[in-house]
Amino acid sequence: MILLAAMALLPLSALGATNQVTGAVTTCGPQTPVTGATVTLIDANGINAPLTTTTNGAGVYAFTPPTGSYTISTTRSGYYDASTSTPMRFDGSHTVTISVCMNRYGSPSKVLVVRVLNAGSPVAGASVAAFNVSNPTGKSQLVATNTTNASGSANLTLWPAPFVIRAVAPDFQTDQAVDVSSTSTTTINLVAGPRIFGQVRDTDGNFLGSGVVAWLYDPSAPPSSLYRLIPGMVSASFYDIHAPAGTYTLIVDADGHLSHQEQVTLPTTNPHDVTLAVAPPELYRTKVAYGTKDWSNLTVWRNLTLNPDSTLPGLSPANLRNLRLQIDATLGNGDGTLSAGEIALFQPWLLAKGPGYATTDGFLTTNNRAYNSSLASYTVQVSPTLPTPDAKVWINTTATYSLKGAPPYIAVGAASYLVTMTMVPDSNISAYQNYTYTVAFPRGYELTTSRVLPDPTVVDILGFSPAVIDPRVTTGTPQIQMTIARSVNGTANAKVTGPVGKFYVVNATFDKYQAYVAGKTVLTFSANDTRDPNDHESRGNFTWRFTSNPGDVRYNIWTTFNYTVNGTFTVNLPCSWTTSFRPRASRRTGPLATRRPV
Questions:
Q1: Cα separation of 153 and 139, whole Å?
Q2: Is 7's pLDDT higher than 60?
Q3: With b meaning 16 or more CB within 10 Å and e meaning fewer, what string describes 257-282?
Q4: 440: buried, middle or exposed (CB in 10 Å: 19+, 13-18, 0-12)?
Q5: Closest CA to 432 of 310, 317, 575
Q6: Nearest-10 crossing angle of helices 340-352, 323-331
Q7: Sign, Cα dihedral of 309, 313, 314, 318
Q8: Which positions ≥6 away from 551 have C-beta within 8 Å?
């Protein structure tokens, strides 16, 4: 994922689309404007932060967002929530329209008085909520909430229809069906019903309080039921779930740990503590490759390796940390299993979301110029492990990109170029997500100097051609500004440096270096005098070969060696800045070491 939201770090030329994402919010059926509706713009890839606005008198909204693939969701008092499911690509080249309709609540309005008792006594401060279980959305909808007063009463504004009224007080939760068409008052007597609760710890016994979530899942319940997916109430490391008697799947997770999943039957013995193992990191790898001799076109590969309890933006429920159950719930029938048909739907669903970067406006620019992706080039591959429960899942995507506003194209053959990349930092939500970025430059160029923003920010730079960038931060929006220049050959220079009194230099010039050294002495050799025009001396790969014996090989910028027999020997020191793509041509042989008694 590439974060585009923090636009303050971006070059001005990479911003500034005048087109918008806009649309109308109307009533379903006969379309009339819904004014004052809250509209949220949601990036389908989870890259950009959500944006929110309200509709005007014509029911129209408008956003000028970063580039991305978007859906919208809408809320309005007196209406059921509505949303779109098919992402629309916005890259700033034209205005994109996303409209939606909303269903009104029933009418006429009617006040239901709810009285909450416990052992015949009124309960003040109890939470009361009304769920409409029969409506056009096909799902149970929360439509009204209130809190009981000193006499244990609360008013809910509803309409004549069937509802489930839920009353919640400390250690109690009681649901009661009420048909508001035939009554105006109802009394709920709190009773100690089935419940499961406990502490969440790690394998060392430490209490876990970051990102704890808990669910009970009953796939046999209808989609409109309140008891199909029951979220737990969580306080730090403690979870608590009330549910009707029955058999469920319990799912408990915490940030940085693998989720725990088991079958439980309520009523059960409490407390039901859960132990979570540490999750292996999830790998988010992004590789950007320029053409061999081309600065105006890119290919971007994105490779994700996900744990079984991972989640993806757009799958629901959002905190149900089980990738396969989310796919089943979002794309399938929600029966708790992942069928072949649902697996077949997953790849097209990913494809419909578009590239992880609709454009690279907020990701990568060259000489302050940005790129647009080719939607037709976007491909997605999903690992064959998806049908296997508890197996990791990899997702690979590829897309090509072309320079925006070209021609003119970026000229080739210049001495240097400026490449700016804005990155997503690592995160530890659900599991540790380790982001790494690789940039392969046109042949013959390498990273020479860089600047990281904001300063200071911990970013590791591994290699120069390609450059491997690894942000080591979990907050903010790290950016790296890289100067890319022509690769120039350097010279590996080696000499003897110790111990003092055990060697004598005959010729100190590095092209003809020669020294007499003592036998049966651990001698120190140094390549600190190596010269690289691009200032990468200390980052080279040094290989010391002291004899023709392949076993007599050493590595590093300095090393040690002990000659055990008399003679004249040559030390070879090849040096390269080797990467997975290509080595630099910087190699040199030396020094000449002649062993004589001192």
A1: 28
A2: no
A3: bbbbbeeeebeeeeebebebeebeeb
A4: buried
A5: 310
A6: 90
A7: positive
A8: none
Comparing 46-55, 91-100, 395-404, 492-501, the range with the smallest average pLDDT is: 492-501
H or E, element range at 121:
strand 121-122
The tens digit of pLDDT for each residue in 468-488 reads 999 988 888 899 999 999 986
Query: In angstroms, rounded to a whole number, what is the distance separating the alpha carbons of residues 573 and 545?
Result: 7
Say if residue 281's pLDDT is above 80.
Answer: yes
Sheet holding 260-266, edge to edge: 229-231, 213-217, 246-253, 260-266
As a whole number of Å, the CA-based R_g of the chain is 32
Encoded amino acid at 381, one letter = Q
Q: Please give the Cα distance from 291 to 441 (Å, whole number).
A: 8
| Per-residue DSSP letter, 258 | P
As a whole number of angstroms, the distance between CA 469 and CA 546 comes to: 35
Q: How confident is the model at residue 575 (pLDDT cuts 50, 70, 90)?
A: low
Dihedral of CA atoms 309, 314, 316, 322 in degrees, nearest 10, equals -10
The per-residue pLDDT for range 523-541, each reduced to its tens digit, is: 898 888 776 655 555 556 7
Would you place residue 542 in the very low, low, confident or very high pLDDT band (cuts 50, 70, 90)? confident
Edge-first strand order for the sheet with 172-179 is 141-147, 127-132, 162-169, 172-179
Residue 208 above 70 pLDDT?
yes
The CA–CA distances, whole Å, from 491 to 528, 540, 545 equal 11, 11, 17
Name the helix (H) or strand (E) containing 468. strand 467-471
Q: Supply φ then ψ for residue 199, to 5 degrees.
A: -95, 150
pLDDT of 404 above 80? yes
Q: Is residue 539 helix, strand or coil?
A: helix
Alpha carbon distance 40, 265 (integer Å)? 39
pTM: 0.76
